[in-house]
C-alpha cells in the first residue's frame, strides 16, 4: 500500500496496479449534462488521468435541477469550462482537454479516437450518438452509450446490457434499429426498463419534444456509466 493520497480508499479495492492503469488512462466524455457531468466527475475522482470533455452548450436555468455543474453562478458559462474547473479544484493534476463544440457529422473526426481507452456517449441526439459510436468502433476504442433518462421516476430500473438485449426504452429501440442498419454490433449501453411517463405539460424546442427530468435519475445513469469504465480500465471482473 502506497502512502496516503486522494486514491487511498480506491486502492484498497483496485490495488496499486489498478490505480496506475487509471492514472495512465484517457477517456473522452461526450455530453456534459445531467448524465455526462456526473460521469466526468466520477471518472476524475476515480483516478482517470486524462479526460476530454465535449459539449457545445452553456449552462442554463433549466439545468439547475439535475446537472452537477449548474449553479446560479455558472448560468451562461460553457459547460466544458465549468466542468474542467471543477475537476481541477478536486484534482489539479488531472489533464483535462475541452472541446466546446456540438459533436456531429461536420466534426466526426474531432478526436483521435484510437488514442483513447474509452469513449462515453452521453449525447442527447440520435444522429450524433450514431456517428460517435461509428467512429469509436472504427478506431477499435471501447464505447458505452447512455440511453434515455428523461420522463423517468425510478433510478433503480437502470441496467447495463448490449444494445441488442435492451427493451422498453424508446431511445434504445431507435438505436437498435439504426445500429443494425449500419452493421454495428456489440455496443454496451445503460438503459432503463421503466416505462417513460407522459409529461404533465407539453414543451417543444424546434420540432423536438422536451422530456421531463428529475434530480435523482440522470445522475444515477452517469454513475453507472463511470463505474463500467473504471472497472474495465482497472481490470475488475465482477462476473
Automatic annotation (TrEMBL):
InterPro entries the UniProt entry points to: ThiF/MoeB/HesA, ThiF_NAD_FAD-bd, Ubiquitin-activating_enz
Instruction: Give the highest taxon in the source lineage.
Output: Bacteria
Q: Name all THIF-type NAD/FAD binding fold domain ranges.
A: 12-236
A GO MF term = tRNA threonylcarbamoyladenosine dehydratase
A Pfam family of this chain? ThiF
* Any one biological process term the GO annotation gives: cyclic threonylcarbamoyladenosine biosynthetic process
UniProt xrefs under Gene3D superfamilies: NAD(P)-binding Rossmann-like Domain (3.40.50.720)
Q: What is this protein called?
A: tRNA threonylcarbamoyladenosine dehydratase
Amino acid at each position: 500500500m502506497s502512502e496516503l493520497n486522494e486514491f487511498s480508499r480506491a486502492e484498497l479495492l483496485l490495488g496499486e496496479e489498478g490505480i496506475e492503469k487509471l492514472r495512465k488512462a484517457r477517456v473522452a466524455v461526450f455530453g456534459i449534462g445531467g448524465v455526462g457531468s456526473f460521469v466526468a466527475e466520477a471518472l476524475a475522482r476515480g483516478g482517470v488521468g486524462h479526460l476530454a470533455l465535449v459539449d457545445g452548450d452553456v449552462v442554463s436555468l433549466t439545468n439547475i435541477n439535475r446537472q452537477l455543474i449548474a449553479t446560479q453562478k455558472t448560468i451562461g458559462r460553457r459547460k466544458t469550462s465549468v466542468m474542467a474547473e471543477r475537476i481541477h479544484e478536486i484534482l489539479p493534476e488531472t489533464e483535462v482537454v475541452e472541446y466546446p463544440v456540438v459533436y456531429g457529422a461536420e466534426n466526426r473526426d474531432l478526436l483521435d479516437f484510437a488514442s483513447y481507452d474509452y469513449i462515453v456517449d452521453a449525447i442527447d441526439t440520435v444522429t450524433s450518438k450514431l456517428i460517435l459510436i461509428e467512429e469509436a468502433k472504427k478506431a477499435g476504442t471501447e464505447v458505452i452509450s447512455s440511453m434515455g433518462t428523461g420522463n423517468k421516476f425510478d433510478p433503480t430500473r437502470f441496467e447495463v446490457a448490449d444494445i441488442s438485449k435492451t427493451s422498453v426504452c424508446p431511445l434504445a429501440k431507435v438505436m437498435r434499429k439504426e445500429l443494425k442498419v449500419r452493421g454495428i454490433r456489440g455496443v454496451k449501453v445503460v438503459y432503463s426498463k421503466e416505462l417513460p411517463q407522459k409529461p404533465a405539460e407539453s414543451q417543444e424546442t424546434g420540432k423536438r419534444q422536451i422530456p421531463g427530468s428529475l434530480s435523482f435519475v440522470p445522475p444515477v445513469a452517469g454513475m453507472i456509466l463511470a463505474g463500467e469504465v473504471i472497472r474495465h480500465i482497472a481490470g475488475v471482473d465482477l462476473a
